[in-house]
Prior knowledge:
This protein is α/β, with parallel strands linked by helices. Helices cover 38% and strands 14% of the residues. The strands form two sheets. A five-stranded parallel beta sheet has the order 7-6-5-8-9. Helix 3 packs across helix 4, helix 5 packs across helix 6 and helix 5 crosses helix 11.
Amino acid sequence: MKRSVIDILDLSVDELNGLMDTAEDIIANPDDYADSCRRKKLATLFFEPSTRTRMSFEAAMYELGGNVLSMTDAASSSASKGESVADTARVISCYADIIAMRHPKEGAALVAANNATIPVINAGDGGHCHPTQTLADLLTIRREKGSFSGLTVGLCGDLKFGRTVHSLINALSRYDGVRYVLISPEELKLPSYVKEEAIKPRGIPYEQTESLEDAMPSLDVLYMTRVQKERFFNEEDYLRLKDSYILDPAKMALGRQDLIVMHPLPRVNEISVAVDRDPRACYFKQVLNGKYMRMSLILKLLEEAAS
């Protein structure tokens, strides 16, 4: 039966844990999975620029023994002629076995999933959701910290438009003992609907602050984000806020020795390159973990579609 993943909440906690377990097995035994998707095709439909996510999906499929059909520029696709997302999904279903799609409009991935006859994975829809980045984030935290229980997680930067932040909160809030520190300027605070839907109903402790320095000593995990120019309606606001937080060695010195620093990438200048040498920097590990989790998710959805 065809099943798609549009939002991280489409996956239960048991399924999240199972996907992480499969990813760990892929890491330990890659040869066992080398032909798992033989003769299967992944279509990557990216209507918005991407490097890591698109190539991560493609690498994942190749390492599973499958093939890739790739659309990387909306201007060179039938979308430039006015073709709808629904029709594109129907057409691509005739060529591929599974779709990974990124689109600048919120809800576009759901429209694709409702019209495709094959599984659709949301690879990011505007400022809404980015579930496979969250899968990468969860695996990174679990591998580095052992579990999610009792962690104080700091989320810093663009909490208003950051789809990775929204998805991560939705996922982590289903695990016991998590606490949040929300670090942002007033204009980029976490939307109230995220707090009302994911944090407050579960009684999860959280605090809001504009000071990264004040927050650093209490954190187990620091999740940095860039201020996203493409989400702003005018450049003046972007220029005023883009350098609100810059993580450098001086700020790192305020953090715990077992702190881990994460970032969904790409970064601009919100993390100094000098931090890359700090063993607590885990953002490039996140990139690799993302490939393994996408392999795990592709396997799960193709297996379910075949059953």
